[in-house]
Amino acid sequence: MISAEAPSNIALIKYMGKLPAQTQDVNRPTNASLSYTLDHLRSRVEITKTQHQDSWSPLKKDSWLTLDLNYKGRDKFLNHFARLKNAFGIDGFYEVSSANNFPAGAGIASSASSFAALTLATYKLARSLKPDFDLSLAKLADFSRQGSGSSGRSLFSSYCLWDKEGFHQVGQKWPNLIHDLIVIDDQHKFIGSSDAHLLVANSSMFSGRVERAHLRLQELMQAFDSMNLEALTKICWDELWDMHTLFHTSNPAFMYMNENTLLALRIINQATRGVTGPIVTMDAGANIHLLYFPGQETLRKSITEKLQAFKLLQQKAVL
Ligand code: DP6
Predict the structure, then answer these.
(1) Is the C or the N end of the chain the one with fewer CB within 10 Å?
(2) 3-class DSSP assignment, residue 123
Protein backbone atom coordinates (compact mmCIF):
# COMPACT_ATOMS: atom_id res chain seq x y z
CA MET A 1 0.00 0.00 0.00
CA ILE A 2 1.26 3.47 -0.93
CA SER A 3 0.07 6.57 0.90
CA ALA A 4 0.54 10.33 0.80
CA GLU A 5 -0.91 13.41 2.47
CA ALA A 6 -1.29 17.01 1.32
CA PRO A 7 -2.67 20.21 2.84
CA SER A 8 -5.38 22.54 1.62
CA ASN A 9 -4.70 26.17 0.69
CA ILE A 10 -6.56 29.46 0.53
CA ALA A 11 -5.86 31.96 -2.24
CA LEU A 12 -5.23 35.59 -1.32
CA ILE A 13 -5.06 36.56 -4.99
CA LYS A 14 -7.55 34.28 -6.69
CA TYR A 15 -7.40 31.88 -9.59
CA MET A 16 -10.72 32.72 -11.21
CA GLY A 17 -11.05 32.46 -14.97
CA LYS A 18 -9.33 29.96 -17.28
CA LEU A 19 -7.72 30.23 -20.69
CA PRO A 20 -9.48 28.11 -23.33
CA ALA A 21 -8.28 24.48 -22.99
CA GLN A 22 -5.66 23.44 -25.57
CA THR A 23 -6.46 19.80 -26.49
CA GLN A 24 -5.15 17.88 -23.43
CA ASP A 25 -3.88 20.88 -21.47
CA VAL A 26 -6.48 22.06 -19.00
CA ASN A 27 -6.75 24.45 -16.05
CA ARG A 28 -4.54 27.24 -17.30
CA PRO A 29 -5.44 30.42 -15.35
CA THR A 30 -6.08 33.83 -16.89
CA ASN A 31 -4.07 35.44 -14.07
CA ALA A 32 -1.41 34.54 -11.52
CA SER A 33 -2.59 33.61 -8.01
CA LEU A 34 -0.97 33.50 -4.59
CA SER A 35 -2.04 31.26 -1.71
CA TYR A 36 -1.40 30.47 1.93
CA THR A 37 -1.11 26.76 2.67
CA LEU A 38 -3.41 25.45 5.40
CA ASP A 39 -1.13 22.76 6.81
CA HIS A 40 -3.63 21.69 9.47
CA LEU A 41 -6.41 20.90 6.95
CA ARG A 42 -5.23 17.76 5.17
CA SER A 43 -6.22 14.96 2.82
CA ARG A 44 -4.76 11.47 2.78
CA VAL A 45 -4.76 9.07 -0.17
CA GLU A 46 -3.91 5.35 -0.08
CA ILE A 47 -3.38 3.26 -3.21
CA THR A 48 -3.62 -0.55 -3.20
CA LYS A 49 -3.23 -3.02 -6.06
CA THR A 50 -6.44 -4.65 -7.23
CA GLN A 51 -7.48 -7.06 -10.02
CA HIS A 52 -10.26 -5.62 -12.14
CA GLN A 53 -10.44 -1.88 -12.62
CA ASP A 54 -9.46 1.33 -10.90
CA SER A 55 -11.93 2.26 -8.17
CA TRP A 56 -12.39 4.76 -5.38
CA SER A 57 -13.44 4.02 -1.80
CA PRO A 58 -13.66 6.10 1.37
CA LEU A 59 -10.56 5.69 3.53
CA LYS A 60 -11.43 4.49 7.02
CA LYS A 61 -8.67 5.21 9.46
CA ASP A 62 -8.25 6.59 13.02
CA SER A 63 -8.57 10.36 13.05
CA TRP A 64 -9.46 10.64 9.34
CA LEU A 65 -13.10 11.44 8.68
CA THR A 66 -15.04 9.17 6.35
CA LEU A 67 -15.73 10.86 3.04
CA ASP A 68 -18.65 10.39 0.70
CA LEU A 69 -17.76 11.37 -2.88
CA ASN A 70 -20.59 11.58 -5.38
CA TYR A 71 -20.26 10.02 -8.85
CA LYS A 72 -19.05 13.25 -10.43
CA GLY A 73 -16.42 13.65 -7.72
CA ARG A 74 -15.25 10.04 -8.10
CA ASP A 75 -15.03 10.41 -11.86
CA LYS A 76 -12.94 13.57 -11.65
CA PHE A 77 -10.65 11.90 -9.10
CA LEU A 78 -10.24 8.63 -11.06
CA ASN A 79 -9.75 10.53 -14.34
CA HIS A 80 -6.87 12.35 -12.75
CA PHE A 81 -5.46 9.04 -11.50
CA ALA A 82 -5.74 7.60 -15.04
CA ARG A 83 -3.97 10.68 -16.46
CA LEU A 84 -1.12 10.29 -13.93
CA LYS A 85 -0.81 6.51 -14.51
CA ASN A 86 -0.52 7.17 -18.20
CA ALA A 87 2.05 9.95 -17.78
CA PHE A 88 4.12 8.02 -15.20
CA GLY A 89 3.92 4.71 -17.12
CA ILE A 90 2.03 2.74 -14.44
CA ASP A 91 0.19 -0.43 -15.54
CA GLY A 92 -2.43 -2.50 -13.73
CA PHE A 93 -5.42 -1.58 -11.60
CA TYR A 94 -5.63 0.06 -8.21
CA GLU A 95 -8.07 0.96 -5.48
CA VAL A 96 -7.67 4.59 -4.46
CA SER A 97 -9.08 5.55 -1.08
CA SER A 98 -9.13 9.02 0.39
CA ALA A 99 -10.20 10.97 3.45
CA ASN A 100 -9.84 14.45 4.94
CA ASN A 101 -9.09 15.42 8.52
CA PHE A 102 -11.72 18.19 8.36
CA PRO A 103 -15.46 17.62 8.22
CA ALA A 104 -16.92 17.35 4.72
CA GLY A 105 -19.78 19.49 6.03
CA ALA A 106 -17.52 22.38 6.98
CA GLY A 107 -17.80 23.94 3.56
CA ILE A 108 -14.05 23.75 2.94
CA ALA A 109 -13.24 22.78 -0.62
CA SER A 110 -11.18 19.61 -0.37
CA SER A 111 -10.27 19.41 -4.04
CA ALA A 112 -6.93 21.20 -3.58
CA SER A 113 -5.72 18.90 -0.79
CA SER A 114 -7.17 15.68 -2.22
CA PHE A 115 -5.85 16.16 -5.77
CA ALA A 116 -2.44 17.14 -4.40
CA ALA A 117 -2.41 14.01 -2.18
CA LEU A 118 -3.46 11.85 -5.14
CA THR A 119 -0.66 13.28 -7.30
CA LEU A 120 1.92 12.66 -4.56
CA ALA A 121 0.67 9.12 -3.83
CA THR A 122 0.70 8.19 -7.54
CA TYR A 123 4.24 9.55 -7.86
CA LYS A 124 5.29 7.41 -4.89
CA LEU A 125 3.67 4.42 -6.58
CA ALA A 126 5.61 5.13 -9.80
CA ARG A 127 8.87 5.36 -7.83
CA SER A 128 8.15 2.11 -6.03
CA LEU A 129 7.87 0.44 -9.45
CA LYS A 130 10.75 2.35 -11.11
CA PRO A 131 13.20 3.73 -8.52
CA ASP A 132 14.92 5.89 -11.16
CA PHE A 133 11.72 7.79 -11.92
CA ASP A 134 12.34 11.32 -10.72
CA LEU A 135 10.25 14.49 -11.00
CA SER A 136 10.75 17.89 -9.38
CA LEU A 137 8.10 19.28 -7.04
CA ALA A 138 7.34 21.99 -9.63
CA LYS A 139 6.72 19.33 -12.29
CA LEU A 140 4.49 17.37 -9.89
CA ALA A 141 2.55 20.54 -9.10
CA ASP A 142 2.01 21.02 -12.82
CA PHE A 143 0.63 17.49 -13.09
CA SER A 144 -1.63 18.16 -10.09
CA ARG A 145 -2.87 21.36 -11.78
CA GLN A 146 -4.34 19.24 -14.56
CA GLY A 147 -6.56 17.47 -11.98
CA SER A 148 -7.58 20.66 -10.21
CA GLY A 149 -5.77 23.97 -10.73
CA SER A 150 -5.55 25.12 -7.13
CA SER A 151 -4.11 21.75 -5.98
CA GLY A 152 -0.73 22.61 -7.55
CA ARG A 153 -0.35 25.32 -4.91
CA SER A 154 -0.78 22.76 -2.10
CA LEU A 155 2.64 21.27 -2.85
CA PHE A 156 4.40 24.36 -1.56
CA SER A 157 4.27 25.75 1.94
CA SER A 158 3.57 28.28 3.41
CA TYR A 159 3.09 30.66 0.47
CA CYS A 160 2.79 29.58 -3.15
CA LEU A 161 2.79 31.70 -6.28
CA TRP A 162 1.26 30.21 -9.41
CA ASP A 163 2.21 32.28 -12.45
CA LYS A 164 3.05 31.76 -16.12
CA GLU A 165 6.25 29.92 -15.18
CA GLY A 166 4.40 27.48 -12.90
CA PHE A 167 4.24 26.95 -9.14
CA HIS A 168 6.87 28.29 -6.75
CA GLN A 169 7.32 28.66 -3.05
CA VAL A 170 7.56 32.37 -2.17
CA GLY A 171 7.88 34.51 0.95
CA GLN A 172 10.16 32.37 3.11
CA LYS A 173 10.38 35.38 5.44
CA TRP A 174 6.65 36.10 5.49
CA PRO A 175 4.83 35.26 8.72
CA ASN A 176 2.87 32.17 9.67
CA LEU A 177 -0.81 33.00 9.98
CA ILE A 178 -3.58 31.46 12.08
CA HIS A 179 -6.65 30.34 10.22
CA ASP A 180 -10.24 30.56 11.46
CA LEU A 181 -13.15 29.62 9.24
CA ILE A 182 -16.65 31.05 9.70
CA VAL A 183 -18.91 28.25 8.50
CA ILE A 184 -21.89 30.01 6.96
CA ASP A 185 -23.01 27.20 4.70
CA ASP A 186 -21.93 23.59 5.04
CA GLN A 187 -23.89 22.27 2.05
CA HIS A 188 -22.50 21.22 -1.28
CA LYS A 189 -22.05 24.24 -3.56
CA PHE A 190 -24.78 24.66 -6.17
CA ILE A 191 -22.16 25.88 -8.67
CA GLY A 192 -18.77 24.23 -8.43
CA SER A 193 -15.63 26.33 -8.87
CA SER A 194 -14.88 24.68 -12.24
CA ASP A 195 -18.20 26.04 -13.55
CA ALA A 196 -17.61 29.41 -11.90
CA HIS A 197 -14.35 29.72 -13.87
CA LEU A 198 -16.33 29.47 -17.10
CA LEU A 199 -19.22 31.69 -16.04
CA VAL A 200 -17.13 34.67 -14.92
CA ALA A 201 -15.85 35.07 -18.47
CA ASN A 202 -19.37 36.36 -19.27
CA SER A 203 -19.31 38.97 -16.54
CA SER A 204 -19.55 42.55 -17.75
CA MET A 205 -16.81 43.25 -15.19
CA PHE A 206 -14.36 40.58 -16.36
CA SER A 207 -12.71 43.11 -18.63
CA GLY A 208 -9.78 44.52 -16.63
CA ARG A 209 -9.78 41.58 -14.18
CA VAL A 210 -6.40 40.25 -15.32
CA GLU A 211 -4.81 43.69 -14.92
CA ARG A 212 -6.43 44.23 -11.50
CA ALA A 213 -5.28 40.83 -10.23
CA HIS A 214 -1.77 41.43 -11.57
CA LEU A 215 -1.47 44.82 -9.89
CA ARG A 216 -2.88 43.50 -6.61
CA LEU A 217 -0.42 40.60 -6.68
CA GLN A 218 2.54 42.99 -7.02
CA GLU A 219 1.16 45.17 -4.21
CA LEU A 220 0.51 42.15 -1.97
CA MET A 221 4.05 40.83 -2.35
CA GLN A 222 5.50 44.26 -1.58
CA ALA A 223 3.20 44.61 1.44
CA PHE A 224 4.35 41.21 2.77
CA ASP A 225 8.00 42.18 2.22
CA SER A 226 7.55 45.39 4.21
CA MET A 227 5.01 43.80 6.62
CA ASN A 228 2.52 46.55 5.87
CA LEU A 229 -0.43 44.79 7.56
CA GLU A 230 -2.89 47.53 6.75
CA ALA A 231 -2.12 47.24 3.04
CA LEU A 232 -2.27 43.42 3.21
CA THR A 233 -5.74 43.35 4.73
CA LYS A 234 -7.00 45.99 2.29
CA ILE A 235 -5.64 44.21 -0.81
CA CYS A 236 -7.16 40.86 0.26
CA TRP A 237 -10.47 42.52 1.12
CA ASP A 238 -10.63 44.16 -2.33
CA GLU A 239 -9.72 40.86 -4.00
CA LEU A 240 -12.52 39.00 -2.21
CA TRP A 241 -15.05 41.57 -3.40
CA ASP A 242 -13.58 41.58 -6.91
CA MET A 243 -14.07 37.82 -7.30
CA HIS A 244 -17.56 37.79 -5.81
CA THR A 245 -18.56 40.79 -7.94
CA LEU A 246 -17.60 38.73 -11.00
CA PHE A 247 -20.03 36.04 -9.78
CA HIS A 248 -22.76 38.62 -9.14
CA THR A 249 -22.37 40.18 -12.58
CA SER A 250 -21.82 37.05 -14.64
CA ASN A 251 -24.39 36.09 -17.25
CA PRO A 252 -26.33 34.32 -15.81
CA ALA A 253 -25.51 35.90 -12.45
CA PHE A 254 -25.05 33.72 -9.36
CA MET A 255 -24.31 34.34 -5.70
CA TYR A 256 -22.57 32.36 -2.98
CA MET A 257 -22.84 35.11 -0.36
CA ASN A 258 -26.02 35.04 1.67
CA GLU A 259 -27.45 37.27 4.42
CA ASN A 260 -25.34 35.51 7.08
CA THR A 261 -22.16 36.07 5.06
CA LEU A 262 -22.98 39.78 4.94
CA LEU A 263 -23.84 39.85 8.65
CA ALA A 264 -20.51 38.24 9.59
CA LEU A 265 -18.57 40.51 7.20
CA ARG A 266 -20.28 43.54 8.75
CA ILE A 267 -19.38 42.37 12.28
CA ILE A 268 -15.73 41.93 11.27
CA ASN A 269 -15.72 45.26 9.46
CA GLN A 270 -17.07 47.05 12.55
CA ALA A 271 -14.75 45.17 14.93
CA THR A 272 -11.69 46.23 12.93
CA ARG A 273 -12.58 49.85 12.34
CA GLY A 274 -9.53 51.89 13.33
CA VAL A 275 -7.39 48.81 14.04
CA THR A 276 -5.55 46.43 11.74
CA GLY A 277 -7.65 43.32 11.40
CA PRO A 278 -6.90 39.81 10.21
CA ILE A 279 -6.85 39.05 6.48
CA VAL A 280 -10.46 38.40 5.47
CA THR A 281 -10.98 36.31 2.38
CA MET A 282 -13.46 33.94 0.75
CA ASP A 283 -13.48 31.09 -1.72
CA ALA A 284 -16.19 30.32 -4.27
CA GLY A 285 -18.66 29.74 -1.43
CA ALA A 286 -20.49 31.47 1.41
CA ASN A 287 -17.87 30.83 4.10
CA ILE A 288 -15.37 33.38 5.38
CA HIS A 289 -11.69 32.72 6.05
CA LEU A 290 -9.84 34.81 8.63
CA LEU A 291 -6.04 34.77 8.76
CA TYR A 292 -4.55 36.39 11.85
CA PHE A 293 -1.05 37.84 12.03
CA PRO A 294 1.42 37.18 14.87
CA GLY A 295 0.50 39.37 17.85
CA GLN A 296 -3.22 39.48 17.14
CA GLU A 297 -4.32 37.10 19.98
CA THR A 298 -6.39 39.73 21.77
CA LEU A 299 -8.08 40.81 18.54
CA ARG A 300 -8.74 37.15 17.68
CA LYS A 301 -10.44 36.61 21.06
CA SER A 302 -12.57 39.71 20.71
CA ILE A 303 -13.65 38.91 17.12
CA THR A 304 -14.36 35.29 18.13
CA GLU A 305 -16.66 36.59 20.89
CA LYS A 306 -18.48 38.88 18.48
CA LEU A 307 -19.02 35.94 16.12
CA GLN A 308 -20.56 33.74 18.83
CA ALA A 309 -23.72 33.22 16.80
CA PHE A 310 -21.74 31.55 14.00
CA LYS A 311 -20.16 28.13 13.68
CA LEU A 312 -16.38 28.60 13.75
CA LEU A 313 -13.71 26.10 12.78
CA GLN A 314 -10.63 27.44 14.53
CA GLN A 315 -7.07 26.36 14.03
CA LYS A 316 -5.71 25.02 17.33
CA ALA A 317 -2.72 27.29 17.75
CA VAL A 318 -1.65 30.46 19.42
CA LEU A 319 0.18 33.23 17.66
C1 DP6 B 1 -12.30 30.17 -5.99
O2 DP6 B 1 -8.91 24.74 -8.49
O3 DP6 B 1 -11.27 24.33 -7.73
O4 DP6 B 1 -10.94 28.53 -4.96
O5 DP6 B 1 -9.07 23.93 -11.72
O6 DP6 B 1 -11.50 23.71 -12.21
O7 DP6 B 1 -10.47 22.34 -10.38
P8 DP6 B 1 -10.44 23.65 -11.16
O9 DP6 B 1 -10.81 24.82 -10.16
P10 DP6 B 1 -10.36 25.04 -8.66
O11 DP6 B 1 -10.59 26.62 -8.52
C12 DP6 B 1 -10.36 27.29 -7.31
C13 DP6 B 1 -10.99 28.61 -7.36
C14 DP6 B 1 -10.99 29.38 -6.07
C15 DP6 B 1 -9.87 30.41 -6.02
C16 DP6 B 1 -8.49 29.85 -5.81
O17 DP6 B 1 -8.31 28.86 -5.09
O18 DP6 B 1 -7.55 30.47 -6.34
Answers:
(1) N
(2) helix
